[in-house]
Amino acid sequence: MSIQQENIEKLVARREAARLGGGQKRIDAQHQKGKMTARERLALLLDEGSFEEYDMFVQHRCTNFGMEKQHFDGDGVVTGSGTIDGRPVYVAAQDFTVSGGSLSKTMAEKICKVMDLAVRTGAPFICLNDSGGARIQEGVDALAGYGEIFERNILASGVVPQISGIFGPCAGGAVYSPALTDFTVMVKNTSYMFLTGPAVVKSVLGENVTQEELGGASVHASKSGVTHFAAENEEEGIRTIRRLLGFLPQNNLEEAPRRETADPAARVDDALNEIIPDNPNQAYDMYQVIRSIVDDGDFLEIHKEFAKNIIIGFAHMGGRSVGIVANQPKVLAGVLDINSSRKAARFVRFCDAFNIPLVSLVDVPGFLPGTQQEYGAVITNGAKLLYAYGEATVPKVTVELRKSYGGSYIVMSSKHLRADLVYAWPSAQIAVMGADGAVNVLYAKDIKAVEDPAAQEGIRAQKKAEYEELFNNPYQAAQKGYVDDVIEPRNTRWRIIRALEFLAGKRQTVPAKKHDNLPL
Fold first, then answer.
1. Residue 444: per-residue pLDDT
2. What count of other Cβ atoms lies within 10 Å of the Cβ of residue 131?
3. What is the number of H-type helices and E-type strands within the chain?
4. How many structural domains are present in the chain?
5. What's the gap between Cα 96 and its chain centre?
6. Three-class DSSP category at 194
7. Do 356 and 226 fall within a single domain?
8. Do both 25 and 148 map to the same domain?
9. 356-411: per-residue pLDDT in tens?
10. Is residue 513 domain-resident?
11. Has residue 251 been placed in a domain?
12. At residue 227, does pLDDT exceed 80?
């Protein structure tokens, strides 16, 4: 055998060993937990045969606590590039079979390398997290590694889409990278995120709590809003990432890819003409409106279980990717509150950063009242959504469906926040407040001046009818140019698609500045 052939065989053998990570025994243990390995996840995520691995032979450089006696090629993370639906992406997948996926300095360097390449080439970055945290044996070097990753998350923000998949533990400082990325996917029962674990919580606060109760996928999907998707299993989580990317551009200088559809742009839906109840206090389901107007009824909802009084997500309209923000009358009457405001604000800013037009469907009676909301800074959080809409320069199309009262009218992508086109259904009610509240303010003295309760109710009913005649329709706003047109509900899809076509070449700038100062 020639020396060259012998070297090639050594290379092949070393590659095979590297692909086993921490070894077959640890791979089996991973499977027994219902989890895939890093390489199995990447094989499912990327187009078949497209993965190009980098730094397979990198090893840690730690010489403390006996670490110099054991090395694994790759050092606990698999990094490289590949394609998803033919489009390039850069990836990092932590390998729990090597030192529990704990972060070393060299591991961080591997991740930073592909993040730099993602920004340099204008391609999305996806990180699949499954790690015990910082590698304690490396001390400050491990912390420095996290800091280097965080800095790159920050610099890449708004430049390329960043997606985190949480497929195992993610604790302590490790949680900040996913928090800095655009979207996070968790898996129920096998992944968790928290800054301090159950043992610390018990020792400091005396609380008994499990990992799942403290930071499981269901908790972060419904209570904290930390995660955008809670998948039933890893396969669903990976499918979600692939599907999500189909709505997004490669970077901030491109537009999202158009998608062919057989759904006619001019399709009408007569059911929309009947969807608004006669009783203004009766709810209806905004999902019906969304599914009616988007291509093929296909809607990818973001934050489905969190702040359900507002709906956000991606769809295609006329083949064009759009971000949809819609109040949900079925939950808290569709009011805005702390959580719904920050949920929608983050989404609006993402769409604006990546050239995705915004479609807003409005039925909002106001902001949720109460001490809990005021003490929790509903003012500041409401201002986040106001700010996000006001600074956005992508095409913005708004449809006023029913209630649109007070400050919430302004906040929900009104003409005053540079919405390009505002349509209203005939059922739209655009006013400072509803009729009952307005009458109590405007005619309080007239009502109190009459002693007979029946007469009081007669005055109240008369004044309420006058107020409703004046404001419980969209025409006063239309007369002032705040509404561009009053449309038949059944034509909503066609009007939005046509508006987006005309707005496709929109160019709008904001005053020169170092950066803005978003109310946080």
1. 77
2. 26
3. 20, 17
4. 3
5. 27
6. strand
7. no
8. yes
9. 999 999 999 999 999 999 999 999 999 999 999 999 999 999 999 999 999 999 99
10. no
11. no
12. yes
Checking if the pLDDT of 62 tops 80, the result is no
**Token output for 307:** 């702040």
d(CA 417, CA 321): 22
Quick one: pLDDT at residue 229? 98
Please compute the mean of the pLDDT values over residues 89-113 and round it to a whole number.
90
State the pLDDT at residue 66: 62
Give the pLDDT confidence score for residue 447 in this predicted structure. 78
* pLDDT band of 266, cuts 50, 70, 90: very high
Whether residue 98 is contained in a domain is answered as yes
Q: Identify residue 357 by its one-letter amino acid code.
A: P
Q: Are residues 51 and 195 in the same domain?
A: yes
32 & 149 share domain: yes
What is the mean predicted confidence (pLDDT) over 103-116?
93
Buried b (16+ CB within 10 A) or exposed e, 185-207: bbbbebbbbbeebbeeeeeeeee
Cβ proximity of 114 and 160 under 8 Å: no
How wide is the angle at C-alpha 348 spanned by C-alphas 231 and 170, nearest 5°?
Answer: 35
Calculate helix-pair angle for 378-391, 338-353, nearest 10 degrees: 20
Tokens of residue 373, six digits: 């909301």
Examine the domain organization and report whether 418 and 454 are in the same domain: no
Distance set, CA 108 to CA 63, 71, 111, 364 (Å): 17, 16, 5, 46
pLDDT tens-place string over residues 141-189? 889 999 999 999 999 999 999 999 999 988 888 899 999 999 999 999 9
Asked if the model's pLDDT at residue 67 lies above 80, the reply is: no
The 3 state secondary structure assigned to 389-454 is HHHCCCCEEEEEEEEEEHHHHHHCCCHHHCCCEEEECCCCEEECCCHHHHHHHHCHHHHHCCCCHH
Is the Cβ–Cβ distance between 37 and 97 less than 8 Å? Answer: yes
CATH value at residue 241: 3.90.226.10
Nearest alpha-carbon partner for 484 in 492, 493, 475, 472:
475
3-state secondary structure of 387: helix
In order, the DSSP letters of 128-182 are EE---SB-GGGTHHHHHHHHHHHHHHHHHTTTS-EEEEE-SEEEGGGGHHHHHSS
Give the chain's mean pLDDT.
92
User: The domain containing residue 453 runs over which residues?
Assistant: 435-472
Note the pLDDT tens digit of each residue in 309-321.
999 999 999 999 9
User: Which residue type occupies 17?
Assistant: A
- Do residues 19 and 106 share a domain? yes
